């Protein structure tokens, strides 16, 4: 498709974020044990992707709508998305979203939580199970290492980055 992201893995060149992530999740046993678990994982991933999309677009919005859009992100995170995950963790009383085993959905939710906290640091204040979930997942050794300062995790968007993107995309 002549686009990025593009990953070369196992002798393949893959594009399309969802295809890449699904392949990697399946390869590393992070995509459930059966079709039903994969459906749940996909549902949770799509939900977090919707929230993450709102957050990623926020820095590029016009100044006169930023405050309104930040309020919308916080409202949606706290009334639509996070309650679903809080309930899922409560209802099955397990440490992970699906199958009591780390999955792609857990990693994706952690990233969504971290992004939401960049918008509002105390956004999880009314979600005790998500707070505990964040702590558990953040302390998995490979994830903990990835979250350390200086790692490959993308830093929050700053004004310099916004200016570069606006120039590239002529917006």
UniProtKB/TrEMBL annotation:
- State the name under which the record lists this protein: glutathione transferase
Query: Member of which family?
Result: Belongs to the GST superfamily. Alpha family.
Superkingdom field: Eukaryota
Q: Which gene encodes it?
A: Gsta2
UniProt keyword annotations, A-Z: Transferase
The protein's matches in PANTHER family, at most eight in alphabetical order, are given as:
GLUTATHIONE S-TRANSFERASE, GLUTATHIONE S-TRANSFERASE A1
Instruction: List, for all copies, the residue spans of the domain called GST N-terminal.
Output: 1-32
What are the top taxonomic ranks of the organism? Eukaryota, Metazoa, Chordata, Craniata, Vertebrata
Asked whether the keyword Transmembrane is assigned, the reply is no
Q: What is its EC number?
A: 2.5.1.18
**What GO molecular functions are on record for this protein?**
glutathione transferase activity
Q: Which positions fall inside the GST C-terminal domain?
A: 34-157
Q: Name one GO biological process term.
A: xenobiotic metabolic process
Which class of enzymes does this protein belong to?
transferase
User: What is the source species?
Assistant: Xiphorhynchus elegans (elegant woodcreeper)
The keyword Transferase is annotated on this UniProt entry: yes
Q: Which CDD domains match?
A: GST_C_Alpha (cd03208)
Pfam families registered for this protein in UniProt:
GST_C_3, GST_N
Kindly give the InterPro entries that the UniProt entry links to this protein: Glutathione-S-Trfase_C-like, Glutathione-S-Trfase_C_sf, Glutathione_S-Trfase, Glutathione_S-Trfase_N, GST_alpha, GST_C, GST_superfamily, Thioredoxin-like_sf
